[in-house]
Structure formats: C-alpha cells, structure tokens
Amino acid sequence: MAVAPVIAGATIRLARGSTRRLQHNEEHPRLMKAAQRIKLFEDVYARDGGCCVYCGIPARRPGHGVKRGPDLATLDHVHPRSLGGPLTRDNLVLACSACNNERGTMAVETFRASKTSKPTA
Ligand SMILES: [Zn+2]
Fold first, then answer.
1. Beta bridge partners of 51
2. Is the pLDDT of residue 17 over 80?
3. d(CA 96, CA 50)
4. CA–centroid distance, residue 34 to ligand 1 (Å)
5. Is the CB of residue 63 less than 8 Å from the CB of residue 94?
6. Distance between CA 14 and CA 64 in Å, rounded?
7. What string of H, E and C letters represents the secondary structure of the chain?
8. Is residue 91 predicted with pLDDT exceeding 90?
9. How many angstroms separate the alpha carbon of residue 6 from the centre of ligand 1?
10. What is the phi/psi pair of residue 90, to 5°?
11. Distance in Å, CA 100 to ligand 1 centroid
12. 55 pLDDT band (50/70/90 cuts)?
C-alpha cells in the first residue's frame, strides 16, 4: 500500500498564544490519523463505486448536514476490528450505515447470504 502523502499546505490550528510550532516533518498524530482516514475513505469509496457492497444502494458521503442516516457511507471491516482486523484498504469495504450496523461481527459471507435470501423491506 502506498504511503499516504502528507497534505501540502495543511494548516494546523494551534491555540492562540501557543509557543509550540510544528516543524515541517513533525507528525501531528491526530492530524495524520484524520488525513489517513480521509484518504482511506476516499480510496474505498471510489473503489466500491460509492455504493454499499452489501445492499447496493448509493451511500451518502458524510459531510455538512449529513451526519447520520441508514444510507450514510461507512467503512466496514471485512475482518472485524474487534477480532484483530487491520484498518487497511484491503480489509475495508464501503457499506451503508444500516448494513454496517446490521452486520456487526457476522462473517461477510454469512451476512451477504442473509441479505440475498431475505428481501429488503
Ligand atoms: Zn447497505
């Protein structure tokens, strides 16, 4: 996997009066994490065509005024995080919020089977 590029020109807001200055190559853990997560989200969103891989509905991107809802785009861990699944592109799929919640830690195959055997309401 390619290393996420450092976002050029990113501004880091520090509290007024703070004397702490970030050096060019100093990693700001929280910022880097957020940037990487956004990159990861964009990668997975594009790869999976913006649709939930389980039910196929177009998943809405979270954004201004779009914070919750069953069709909100989320990243679902194929191998559940709680079972040691890594937060990597290969272990993530685009899932709508409803499917993500519904699946929980169910195996992907089991969940997919349950989605296809049961007509959605
Ligand atoms: Zn879905």
1. 58
2. no
3. 10
4. 24
5. no
6. 23
7. CCCCCCCCCCCCCCCCCCCCCCCCCCCCHHHHHHHHHHHHHHHHHHHCCCECCCCCCECECCECCECCCCCEEEEEECCCHHHCCCCCHHHEEEEEHHHHHHHCCCCHHHHHHHHHHCCCC
8. yes
9. 32
10. -70, -20
11. 7
12. very high
- Cα of 31 vs centre of ligand 1, distance in Å, is 29
Q: What pLDDT is stored for residue 119 in this prediction?
A: 58
Contact 18/32 with Cβ under 8 angstroms?
Answer: no
- Rounded distance, CA 105 to CA 82, Å? 8
Token readout for 79 is 């191998």
Counting every residue written for the chain, the total comes to 121
Enumerate residues with CB within 5 Å of ligand 1 (an ion).
52, 54-55, 96, 99
- The Cα–Cα gap between 96 and 48 comes to 12
Q: Which two tokens stand for residue 96?
A: 């709508």
Q: Spell out the domain ranges in the chain.
A: 73-78+86-121
Query: What single letter denotes the amino acid at residue 1?
Result: M
The structure tokens listed for 67 are 């914070």
